[in-house]
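Supplementary Methods. Inverse-folding protocol.

Structures were first reduced to a discrete structure-token string of length 327. This string, shown here, constituted the complete conditioning input.
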């Protein structure tokens, strides 16, 4: 006699129980209204544990919940008629048109927006906690903001109308995994967080062709770090760096220092020398260097503390030099 007559049944029951503990996908099968239960398969308005899936062409209204993830499948064409927040990430293989709405991927450990499809922003706003890897982006006159906790990367060269970095922690970074150029057609603003331009994986921020491009850093939590042999971004008609903000030239190769702007706090580090070739060199905040520094500027103006660490060569060859703070 078999001492375990119900052994297989017990195993099957256990497997079914485990599978039910995972979230399921909700595919949109209706017409326009998000908050109608019968518009979804399986039936029911998506919850915070669901992945929502779109396979058709529709404009979606009455968005009443925030799902876990968003999937716009190849061939689908979805326009937002209301704002949408996903609690993790969005994968776009078809077309997602934000129109004049707001779209956010706010996952604490995710928050990525990517895919091989097309993301159209028009006049709306997009925010994300994580990484940007969108293959085809139509910027319109939109605002894209990297916010939340954690670090973010931009996977490929991209053009934004307005781009902002507003991280929860000042040490959170925006950088790139490969050599990319980010073109700004209107404004680039850093209110909190660090923007890193790495030596081998350069995130190059440049002004676009609009003629009204603005680069601004407004708080003590904002920093721009320039590595390799790179210099400060060009192409911006207006650069506004408050004295509380910080620019760091950190390259291990010689770096040319852009003297066409007025710096807040300025730090020279790494092992590469730093040089100002011409113009007027203005630092409204504190200045520090631990590497060789030379200036051929007609005037060198330091508004805060000046700190020289170690014994680097410092040469201010021409013009007047003014110190408003202690040396």
């Amino acid at each position: 006699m078999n001492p375990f007559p119900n052994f297989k049944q017990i195993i099957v029951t256990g497997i079914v129980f485990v599978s039910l503990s995972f979230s399921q996908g909700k595919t949109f099968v209706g017409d326009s209204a998000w908050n109608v239960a019968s518009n979804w398969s399986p039936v029911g308005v998506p919850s915070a544990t669901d992945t929502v899936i779109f396979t058709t062409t529709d404009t979606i209204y009455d968005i009443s919940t925030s799902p876990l993830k968003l999937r716009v499948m190849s061939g689908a064409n979805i326009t937002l008629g209301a704002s949408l927040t996903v609690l993790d990430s969005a994968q776009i293989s078809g077309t997602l048109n934000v129109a004049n709405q707001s779209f956010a991927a706010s996952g604490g450990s995710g928050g990525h927006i990517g895919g091989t499809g097309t993301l159209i922003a028009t006049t709306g706003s997009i925010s994300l906690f994580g990484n940007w890897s969108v293959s085809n982006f139509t910027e319109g006159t939109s605002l894209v903001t990297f916010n939340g906790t954690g670090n973010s990367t931009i996977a490929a060269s991209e053009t934004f109308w307005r781009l902002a970095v507003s991280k929860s922690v000042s040490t959170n970074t925006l950088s790139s995994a490969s050599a990319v150029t980010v073109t700004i057609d209107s404004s680039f603003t850093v209110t909190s967080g660090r923007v890193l331009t790495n030596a081998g994986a350069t995130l190059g921020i440049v002004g676009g062709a609009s003629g009204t491009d603005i680069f601004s850093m407004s708080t003590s939590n904002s920093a721009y770090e320039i590595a390799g042999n790179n210099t400060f971004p060009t192409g911006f008609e207006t650069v506004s760096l408050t004295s509380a903000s910080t620019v760091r030239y950190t390259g291990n190769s010689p770096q040319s220092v852009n003297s066409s702007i007025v710096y807040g706090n300025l730090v020279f580090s790494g092992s590469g020398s730093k040089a100002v070739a011409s113009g007027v060199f203005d630092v409204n905040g504190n200045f520090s260097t631990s590497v060789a520094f030379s200036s051929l500027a007609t005037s060198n103006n330091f508004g805060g503390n000046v700190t020289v660490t170690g014994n680097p060569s410092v040469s201010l060859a021409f013009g007047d030099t003014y110190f408003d703070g202690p040396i």
